[in-house]
Amino acid sequence: MLIDVDTIPTGVRATRRISRFWAPRPASLDLLRDALSSDVVLLRGPAGVGKTSLLRQFAASLDDDTQRGVQFIDGGVTTPERLPEILAAFAEGPSMHVLLIDNHSEGAGLTTEHLLHLLRSDANLRIVVATRQATGLESPLVAIEFDVQVIPTEHLLMTRDELAEVLELNGVATTEVGIDALAERTHGWPALVQLAAARLRLEGLPLRTRDEALAAAGYANAAFTTDLEQRLDMPVSDDVRLLAIAPHVTVAIADAMGVDPREGSTGELVAHLQDAGFMWPSSTRLTLAEPIREQWLREITQRRPEDVSSARLHLLAHLVAGGEPLLAAQLAADAEQWPTLAGVLRSSGPEIWARDPEGFRRLICLLRTRAPMTPAVVDALLALDPDTAASLETPGLVVTALGQLPDAKSAASNDLDALILRVSLLRAVGRFALATEAAAVLNDAVRRSGDLSAELTCEAWYQVGMTSFAMGRLREARVTLGQSQRIAPPALRMRARGVIAVIDLLEGDVRGAQQVVAPDRDDNWRSSPWGEGLRLAEAWLRLEEGDAAGARTMLDRLPATAGRANCGRSPPPCTPCRSCCRARPPTPSDSFERGCRGHAARRRPTISRRRSSPRGRRC
C-alpha cells in the first residue's frame, strides 16, 4: 500500500510523466520486483531511459499489496531532516517497507550515509534508488553489510511489444514493417518511443512504411538531443560532439581524441555531462546515450569530417595501447577504417582471439569481403584467414599489393614495417630469390637499429627465419626463429615454436620435436591460428609413431588441409619438371604456416616448376 506519497513534494515534470498514453512495462517491472529481495536496488541510467516512470508504475503495482508499505520520494529535494518522518510513516504501516527514491544524487539531498542509516534503523526496509550517477552504494564495503543489486540501463529499455502498445494507446495506424523499423531506430529508448508516438498522434500521421518510421525516429532523436542541450548550462560545441566518436567515454579517451572543453578541465566536462543526464553511467566508464550519440556523430561528421577521422585514429591507438584491441577493432570495422583494422589484427590479433574467437572470425570475414587489398590488408589475411591463403585469386592480389610497396633499400632506410611486409608478400607469391634479398636487407637493418620495439624486432626475425625456411636453409631458420621466440609474446612465441618443431622433424630429430611440442600441449593458444604449426608438428609426430589414423584426424582439422576437403577438390599437383614425369604429392610442410604461403605458390605453375621440397628433392 502507498504511504504518504504526496507528503514530500516531487518535481512537477516527474509527476506528469505517467499518462494514459504511456504503456505498462511488464518486463522491467518483473525484473524490479524480483530484485526487491535485495536490500538496495539501483536503477542507473541517463536522462530519458524511463527511470521515473518505471518507479511510479512500480509504486502503483504495489498499491494493492497489503503486506508492504511504499513511500515515493524525490532524492533531489528531500533533506536529511525528513528522515524521522519517513521512518515514522513506515512504523504506522505494514511490516514490510519499500522506499522508492527518484533523482538520487550524492551531491544533493540524501547521501549514501543517510540511506545506510535508514537501512540500519529499519531491518524490514528495502530501498530502490533511481540515479544518473555511480553512487557510494556500489562500494564493496557496503556490500559486506547489505545486499546491493544494480539494474543497468540495457534492462530498462522497452521491448518491441511495449513499443507497439504505446503506438496503439496513442491511436497510431501501424504495420509490422513500420513498428520493426521504429523499434530498430529508437533502440527501445523510452524517451524516443514516447516522443515518436506523441508526434504521430498529435499530427495524425500513420506508421506504415519504413520511411515513415525513419522520419518519426529522426524527429524524436533530434528533439530529445535538443531538449537536453537546452537544459545544459554550457554551450555544446563541435569539440564536445567529438565525444560521440567513442562508444565509451573517460577523461583519458576524451584527451586522446583531442576534445576541448573550452572552459575547465576535461574531467569537469565529463562529470558535468554525466550530471546533466547525457551519459550512461557505470563503475569505470561512461557511455553517451544512443539518441545523443547518433545525433552528435551525424552533425560533427557533416561539419568536420577531417577532424572526425583524425580523432577516430587517435582513439583506436589509445584503445590498443590501453589493452582494449577488441573494442578498437570493432570501432575500426564500424567506421570502415580497413587499414587500421588490418593493423590492429596484425599487432593485437592474439588478444582479440583470446577474448572473442567468434568476433575475431567476423572481423576477418569483414576484412576479406569489404576491405581494399592494400599490402597490410593482404598480409593480415594471408596470415590469419584460411580462405584467403587457399584462394585462386591470392597470387594476383599479392602481386598488386607488392606494387604499392617501396623497394627493399628504400624501405630499409625509411619504413621497416614496409620492408617486413615486402619480405612476407614476396615469399607468399613464390618469388623466393627476391624474398631472400629483401630478407638479407631486413636482417642488416634490424642489426643496425638499436631502438626498435620488441614487436617490430620479433616480426622481423620471424620473417627472416621463414624466408630461410622456405629456401631450405633449416639451420639458419632455426637460429633466427629462436631469436624471434625469445622476445615474442605468448601467441607469437608458439608460432615460432611450431616452425622450430617442423624444422626438427625435417632434419629427422623426432625427440627434439617432441621436446618442443610437449610443453605447450595444454596452452590455450594451441587452438588459435598461431598454434597451427604446433598442431601440424603434433600430427607429424603421430605419423612417426605409426598412428596414421590419429595423424589424419589432426590434419583434417587444420585450416591449411581441411579447406580443400571442404570444397570437394583435391589440391592441384605441381607441374612436373623435366627430370621427372610425375607430380610430387604435397608434403605436410607445404601446408604448414600460412606465413610460408605454400598454397598460393603451388597454384602458380611457373613457380611450382622451380620449387624444391625442404629435403632437397625435386618434384
Describe the structure in your own words.
The protein is an alpha/beta fold. It is built from 34 helices and seven strands. The strands form two sheets. A five-stranded parallel sheet has the order 2-3-4-1-5, sandwiched between helices. The longest helix is centred in the middle third of the chain and has 22 residues, at 210-231. The radius of gyration is 32 Å and the shape is elongated. The chain starts with 11 loop residues before the first helix and ends in an 11-residue tail after the last helix. The relative contact order is 0.05.
Tell me how many strands there are. Answer: 7
- Helical region count? 34
Determine the strand fraction and express it as a percent band. 5-15%
Which spans have pLDDT < 50 for at least 5 consecutive residues?
5-14, 563-619
Spatial separation of the terminal alpha carbons:
89 Å
Which of globular, elongated, flat, extended, rod-shaped describes the shape?
Answer: elongated
Mean pLDDT: 83
Largest beta-sheet characterization: 5 strands, parallel
SS-derived structural category: alpha/beta
Give the fraction of residues assigned to helices.
Answer: 55-70%
Order of the strands making up the biggest sheet: 2-3-4-1-5
